[in-house]
Amino acid sequence: FSKISSHEFELAKQLYESINSLNKVKVVGKDFSNTNRTPTVSFVHTDYMPQEICKALASENICAWDGHFYALKAIQKLGLEQKGGVTRLGVSLYNTEEEIERVVAVISKL
Questions:
Q1: pLDDT at 70 (0 to 100)
Q2: How far is CA 58 from CA 5, 34, 51, in A?
Q3: What distances in angstroms separate CA 86 from CA 3, 49, 62, one per listed residue?
Q4: C-alpha 94, offset from chain centre
Q5: CA distances from 78 to 28, 35, 72, 73, 88 (A)
Q6: 91, 11 in Cβ contact below 8 A?
Q7: How far is CA 71 from the centre of its chain?
């Protein structure tokens, strides 16, 4: 389990840092400086709604989710409710570094 946890953490950290460096994208949530972090990354794009981003990712066979994820008060407090919440990506044990790079490439083309 520690190898799985380490694998997921490293890929999620790569995803976080890569997405966070893109223009017009803002990651919502803490960075990966703490290893006790769930391997998910949420973000918003200045030009696209989360649903549109998920549709673009789905067209490339990449699964992502959009919405408030039962954290409606937090989404409201961040002023993101009318914008459709956030786009969220999760990393799991079966994901690869190449898949992270592909996700970032699709988002960077938006």
A1: 86
A2: 26, 30, 10
A3: 29, 8, 16
A4: 17
A5: 9, 25, 10, 9, 15
A6: yes
A7: 16
Token pair in block for residue 89: 């990506």
84's tokens: 């459709």
List, for residues 82-96, the tens digit of each pLDDT value.
999 999 999 999 999
Helices (H), 40-87: 50-58, 72-77
Q: Do the Cβ atoms of 53 and 64 come closer than 8 Å?
A: yes
Encode burial over 95-106: b for 16+ CB neighbours within 10 A, e otherwise: beeeebeebbeb
d(CA 95, CA 33): 21
pTM: 0.91
Q: Is residue 12 a contact partner of residue 41, using CB atoms and an 8 Å limit?
A: yes
User: Beta partners for 90?
Assistant: 40
24, 47 contact by CB (below 8 A)? yes
Q: How many residues does the chain have?
A: 110
Tokens of 53: 């981003």
